[in-house]
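Aim 2 progress update. The chain analyzed this quarter is reproduced below.
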Amino acid sequence: MTSTYKAVEVSAPGTLRVVERQVSEPATGQVRIRVEACGICHTDAATVTGIYPGLKLPRVPGHEVVGRIEALGSGVSRWKIGQRVGVGLIAGEDGVCEPCRRGDTVNCQNPVASGVTADGGYAEVMIAEARALSSVPDELTSAEAAPLLCAGVTTYNALRNAGLRGGDLVAVQGIGGLGHLGVQFARQMGFHTGAIGRGREKEKLAKDLGAHVYIDSTSEDAAAVLQRMGGARAILATGTSGDAMGPLVAGLAARGKLIIIGVPNDEIRLNAFPLVFGGRSIYGTLTGTPIDSEDTLAFSVLENIRPMIETFPLEQAADAYARMMQGKARFRMVLVTGQ
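Predicted structure tokens:
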């Protein structure tokens, strides 16, 4: 084993550079991972641009990490050398804040966050908390598994925790990095699946992914179409436009839910009438725990759900990140090492 490894760090806001770092030993309760793949997520922008509150640079981004354990810190007994594992965004919790004390560790007020409070996976090596690890099944390649540790678990959890029943009409707004997985999960969970996109050119893809119905929001009123179908029990909003999300409330059935998992830059404007008259609701949801990630990976294997990915070598991280930010990714960018 060499004493150094390559990493891509944010040295200053907006600047990604390849550097050589010294390999370090994991502390108590930690493991060292030899990274095989790391997905690029839009959330990485908070690190790359330096806007995340309290962020200290330099920092290695990346929170969709898959690799093999090559060293164990003291006190780690659950995991073994050579085991393939994944690490997501929430990579440890303080255990003492109110959300943690109530069992809601995903919303810990002082979390270990991969690529934010601790170095992430844009690197050949990563130190991670053992409590943050998820086992990765053999049926998935590392590049396939990586996006499922953020985009995958976020969409999977949002749908399975929404109180829905098989056959319910569920629409997915946006056929992109999150939405193309949301459509697959919704279909395989047994929902009557609608996909809302911009332009007819996305219709074939949406239906290939499992959508029963495609709604082109550039030529149709998506909410009106959904109401003609009886109203959606849930709409999973994955896009990047708040302006497009707000009107979808009118497409919900009584007691229906607009679930926000995409984070637009603009405001989401709401009409109170459909919220009050019909008891409709709107809420957001964020990622999941390590065991939630394992559930996501297992369900993806069971139902043959896979992210659509483009792979780049680690050294081209800046180019891959730029492609994602320009909206050119189809649909998840994944950095791979020489492993």
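Residues 4-153+288-336 form a domain with the Quinone Oxidoreductase; Chain A, domain 1 fold (CATH 3.90.180.10). The chain has a mean pLDDT of 97. These observations will guide the mutagenesis experiments scheduled for the next reporting period.
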